[in-house]
DNA sequence: TTGTAGGCGTTATCAA
DNA sequence: TTGATAACGCCTACAA
């Protein structure tokens, strides 16, 4: 379905309109309103400003973009904007963009690879300053996607990937492995000895890193990982994986580590349905530190990720000319809460 | 801080490039790649398509927009994209936009009125098809904002407001009053007789409607609203308002109605801190049906709003030529959960 | 059916 | 400092 253009409506005032109203040339008007270094007589300047104000003039960014050959948009690709995880990232991206006078155009991949390729194609049409990919949680990109990104970056566009970036991309990463090591160590430190892990699919880098890190930290502290169940990254996956884990039988005092807070929350729901008390009976820990984790009860032990900051750093990576990956401000912290009470 | 244009990089292939590569005129290339009704010989058509594919050509949307006088973007203004309430709306907007081949540009007001005006000004520059305002929850708009909107709509742009819209705006609304009446009635029906209301600021329409509706339904069912505390719409406000309410003393069996789930969740936290059991002692109900409400414990009684659908309807309102407000699909449902157990 | 040419709103070069 | 004027990439009568 196509969109109908508005027929017969008065158009927005153009630069020529304000120039005429101010009695100056278009070039002069351009200089005072948009041009960089001001070199216009004060008298003219004021007249132009007044005329613009009067007419409610706003520069046509599309025209500016074609004339300048460079646009003022940053394109952001996320899997699901309703998910607070991506919401916080988007929030940081928007803040960073606003700081440099850029506008954020967003697209939702719904975790569909074909769709993602199609969207990148569309967004390329905007000739954005940069393309920020927060679409996956670090699984390997589709092949078609790489072509699009290559085309984009070889035409002067910048690609920023959240997570391990491929090829030309600047990558803003988070130390999933390290955070998980710390979490595993902390939980072993308060007495846990047996753990079950609920992970996303194999091959999703961030999940793999978290599983490996947790295992490392937990076993180093004297614990043992009994099993790893693979399902997905969301609440429903956690619920499903937890049911599978319960089918094996779970001794009291066992720890369940979900690779994301949503997975952990889903696991908690499944535990309640099975009449297992979260905390005293079965302990649960997550990863991400989503707001929800704070409000479930018992409150969820997790690893804090500064997601908003992550998004902000992504736009820095997008606009800074000389950029180097910063780890500062992106440190992860273990947050121990009541879902993992210290064990005797 | 300004953004540096990329120096000396190869530019993206232009329509002229593919025309040359295909050995046809620019016009022909335009017709097969972008023009509406196809009237191009198959042989030429294929050659153009092949050339475009070969070069990785994507139409420059900015240039298209200036040439056509109409852009392919929809602008969305939200208060806070990290808030799942707005996240879900944005999700629906994105879905609707995608259906009609439009792209969504988003801006965050942070609930700051001056900022909001500034952002509308910037977004106007994109000459978007429509401007969707989901920034407030229906408080009265700033005066400067109305001017901007007026300028935009009189230049042929469409304004869509979520909540009561002012002036030219098409409004997509939700029956806050009716939903709250139903909630109040249902809770009175299961035995509650005394209630305290935690509201946003006076003058915020949606909050006022919910308070009025709840009071109506609750008293009609034989209940009584003891007090209304005004604070805000988020978790922290709910926490604060709840503390204030507790200071008055609260008898067991009292119901607390927060005008949003977040307010209710904040209230639950404050109650726990005061060692009051949520449910058996003090009952809590919210409004919105945020995912979080399902995962707190006890699960939160609330009124379900189809937020994603709301966003979708907003883009329908934005693009449909002949549009009438639809209430279908936007019905609110009372969801009774364990935070309000039936009373004796 | 195809190509030529003028125009969309801005910017930027170059005389004046 | 100001103002013509040629781009920018694309669309679209109009003519061939």
How is this structure best described in words?
The structure is a homodimer of 344-residue chains. Chain A is an alpha/beta fold and 344 residues long. Chain A has three domains: 15-59, no CATH class; 70-172, Rossmann fold (3-Layer(aba) Sandwich), CATH 3.40.50.2300; 176-305, Rossmann fold (3-Layer(aba) Sandwich). Chain A contains 13 helices and eleven strands. Chain A has helices at residues 15-22, 26-33, 42-55, 61-68, 84-99, 113-124, 143-154, 176-189, 205-220, 235-247, 261-273, 291-295, 307-319, and strands at 73-78, 103-108, 130-134, 158-162, 170-172, 194-199, 224-230, 255-258, 283-285, 302-304, 333-335. Chain A has a five-stranded parallel β-sheet with strand order 2-1-3-4-5, sandwiched between helices. In chain A, helix 5 links the parallel strand 1 and strand 2 (103-108). The longest helix of chain A has 16 residues, at 84-99. Chain A is elongated and about 85 Å long. The structure holds a DNA duplex (16 and 16 nucleotides).
């Amino acid at each position: 379905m196509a969109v109908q253009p508005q027929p017969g409506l008065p158009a927005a005032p153009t630069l020529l309109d304000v120039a005429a109203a101010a009695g100056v040339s278009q070039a002069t008007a351009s200089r005072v309103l948009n041009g960089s270094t001001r070199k216009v007589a004060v008298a003219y300047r004021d007249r132009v400003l007044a005329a613009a104000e009067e007419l409610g003039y706003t520069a046509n960014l599309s025209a500016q973009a074609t004339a300048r050959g460079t646009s003022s948009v940053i394109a952001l690709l996320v899997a699901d904007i309703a998910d607070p995880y991506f919401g916080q990232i988007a929030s940081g991206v928007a803040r960073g963009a606003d700081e440099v006078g850029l506008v954020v155009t967003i697209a939702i991949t719904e975790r569909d690879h074909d769709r993602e390729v199609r969207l990148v194609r569309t967004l390329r049409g905007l000739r954005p300053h940069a393309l920020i990919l927060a679409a996956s949680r670090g699984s390997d990109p589709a092949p078609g996607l790489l072509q699009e990104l290559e085309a984009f970056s070889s035409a002067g566009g910048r690609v920023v990937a959240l997570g391990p970036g491929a090829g030309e991309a600047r990558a803003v990463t988070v130390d999933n492995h390290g955070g998980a090591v710390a979490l595993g160590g902390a939980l072993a430190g308060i007495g846990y000895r047996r753990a079950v892990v609920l992970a996303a699919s194999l091959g999703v880098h961030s999940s793999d890193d978290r599983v490996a890190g947790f295992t490392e930290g937990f076993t180093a502290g004297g614990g043992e990982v009994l099993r790893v169940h693979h399902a997905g990254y969301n609440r429903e996956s956690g619920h499903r994986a937890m049911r599978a884990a319960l089918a094996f039988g779970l001794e009291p005092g066992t720890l369940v580590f979900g690779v994301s807070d949503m997975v952990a929350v889903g696991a908690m729901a499944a535990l309640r349905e099975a009449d297992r008390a979260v905390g005293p009976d079965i302990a649960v820990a997550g990863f991400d530190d989503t707001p929800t984790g704070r409000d479930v009860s018992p409150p969820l032990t997790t690893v804090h990720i500064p997601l908003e900051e992550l998004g902000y750093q992504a736009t820095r990576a997008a606009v800074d000319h000389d950029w180097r990956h910063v780890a500062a401000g992106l440190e992860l912290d273990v947050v121990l809460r009541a879902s993992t009470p210290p064990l005797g």
